[in-house]
Amino acid sequence: DKIDLLKKGKQLVYAYKNASRKSQGADNEEKLILEAVKKSGNDGIAPKDIKYATNLPQPQITKILKGMEARRLVKSVVSSSKKKLFLLYGLEPSHAVTGGTFYSGQEFETEFVDVLGEQCYRYLLQAKGLAEKLSDPVSQRHASFKSSREICDYINSLKISKVELKLPDIEKILEALIYDDKVEKSVSLTSSSSKGSGSENFYRTIKPLLSSAGLMRMPCGVCP
């Protein structure tokens, strides 16, 4: 396989194949594909789009991608729309690809969200129960609030999710509880020399004064 039979004038001669040139060509093709995958970031890129970006034949792209997967340069994922995408091996697919934490394929996991909401609410109820044992009303109010970070850490400690939940995931759950008139939110401004100024969200359970869904209760921010 490493020798070519060539015709030189009227004579047939044997010559070694130019393996280095062939290898260099393969390296260049791999670099083109790797660059296309790299540009896609954590949104990934479909093989068809790699073809458009590199002008390489599809069978060749498939073969090269397979080798790159074996060497852990890239990895393939299936998006929520059932589309096969490639991204760099060390990257995690974006929410646009996976459909977000609360999606399985294209289906919204209602039961999972309900369980998370129930656990968040129970945690806040427990905090409120402990706060009510304090004698000072101001201390009661302060102790009844929990930050979204504290709630997130607690939910992750329960191990009820297959993946680690992020702060935005938990805050989406808490926003739903606010909409259901079960929880209220307080925003606290923070500042530090290392992080600069910012804000942090705190939550606590409330007892709705009215059961009517058409009315909204606005906390005054003073009463415990």
From TrEMBL:
Gene Ontology terms: biological process: transcription by RNA polymerase III
Keywords on record: DNA-directed RNA polymerase, Nucleus, Transcription
Main localisation: nucleus
Gene3D superfamilies, alphabetized: Winged helix-like DNA-binding domain superfamily/Winged helix DNA-binding domain
Compartments reported by the entry: Nucleus
GO cellular component labels: cytoplasm; nucleoplasm; RNA polymerase III complex
Family: Belongs to the eukaryotic RPC34/RPC39 RNA polymerase subunit family.
Protein name: DNA-directed RNA polymerase III subunit RPC6
Lineage, top ranks: Eukaryota, Metazoa, Ecdysozoa, Arthropoda, Chelicerata
Annotated gene: Polr3f_2
